[in-house]
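REQUEST ID: PR-0412
SUBMITTED BY: lab tech R.K.
PRIORITY: routine
TASK: structure prediction, single protein chain
INPUT:
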Amino acid sequence: MEIWTTVACSKTRAALDELGRYDVNYTRRSCMEEPPTAAEIEDVLDRLGMEPWEVARPQESREAGFADLPKDRDGRDSWVQALVAHPHCIQRPIVLLDDGSAVIARDAETLNRILG
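STATUS: complete
OUTPUT:
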């Protein structure tokens, strides 16, 4: 399991605290220190079953200047490139599970559900 994090994010810190209660091995990846590539974002979007604008943090996307990009097929690549350029705009933490799925784990309930 891999977890995409940002140190400054309180939801990330809470998720890491919750993961500490379980006996699970995971790799922590800081999106700021090791930003995801476009291919990695596309993979995560497929795993989540979501579009890039759905994983973009609204306020940060507005501040970065790309929140008004078209939210359709024609604008999809622009959204992905914007997330590559501004990884702080990606929702976190994102947990990539070994079974090929992924979740945005912003609460203990989601973590409890996936960790069982």
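NOTES: The chain has one domain: 2-115.
REVIEWED BY: pending
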